[in-house]
Amino acid sequence: MRLPNTLSRRQFLSLSGVTIASAGLASCATSTAEFRQQTAPYFRPVPGQVTITYQEPVATAWRGGPVDTGLPPQSAYYAEIYGPVFDGGFALPAIPYQQIDPRFYRQQVADPFGEAPGTIIVDTKDRFLYLVQPGGRAMRYGVGIGREGFAWSGRGVIQWKQKWPRWRPPNEMVARQPHLAEYSIANGGMAPGLNNPLGARAMYIFKNGQDTLYRLHGSPEWKSIGRAVSSGCVRLMNQDVIDLYDRVRVKSPILVV
């Protein structure tokens, strides 16, 4: 091959390297879509800025408006506890914890209330449930709570607990939402399952020996955690309610504030 007089052999080899490199990049172009998706910035519209300490540090939460927080937080610990679970004959899917405000991840924290160990406190303002532990510590879970006008507060006890419960909407709810009639108490309620509004576990709140009709329960609607959307009950992610259920005894005191 004869080179033009104006192009030295060194220049030719240099240009050839650029061409080969460009061809190599072009050959990767078809696989960059997945890379872009995996490395896309993650926006978490949480007010202000505060570093949160977990059992395994995973992220810094931002407060003060929509902020580009970079990659979604990754954690082997949270990937495990919010991973898929086979329980009671049902296959619970993994929860995409990266899409949830890290404040609402299950974690051990300092007890802010000073109640006796074993007490459950639901902080409706900040959307947390605390299970008080010895030594000034507490397990904290993110929750969804009742909409304005449906929320309940006060002291009670966990009268009984149930795995994969049937859902029996109160007659008052059925009257407001007639399409729920097929799941009424008279009709036996809704069978347990992945779409059951009570989720994988339910803990029933009584006061002075009477059923308050309010529950601590699981929910497949993980996007509702941190919000006021339910009809009064306190909902947790299914993986969290299973963990809480195993820690709570019947007759445990509960305080909803």
Description:
The chain is an alpha+beta fold and 257 residues long. It has five helices and 15 strands. A hairpin with a 2-residue loop joins β3 (85-87) and β4. It is globular and about 45 Å long. It starts with 8 loop residues before the first helix and ends with a strand. Mean pLDDT is 79; it is low at 12-30 and 38-71. Residues 118-257 form the L,D-TPase catalytic domain.
Name the descriptors.
257 residues; 9-stranded mixed sheet; alpha+beta; globular; peptidoglycan synthesis; 19% helix
In a nutshell, what does this entry contain?
This protein is α+β, with helices and mostly antiparallel strands and 257 residues long. It contains 5 helices and 15 strands. β3 and β4 form a beta hairpin.
- Overall pLDDT score: 79
As a whole number of angstroms, the C-alpha radius of gyration is 26 Å
What percent of residues are in strands? 25-35%
> What structural category do the secondary elements indicate?
alpha+beta
Helix content: 10-25%
Number of strands: 15
Q: Give the N-terminus to C-terminus distance in angstroms.
A: 86 Å
The largest sheet has its strands arranged as 5-8-7-6-15-10-11-12-14
Order of helices and strands: HHEEHEEEEEEEEHEEEEHE
Helix count equals 5
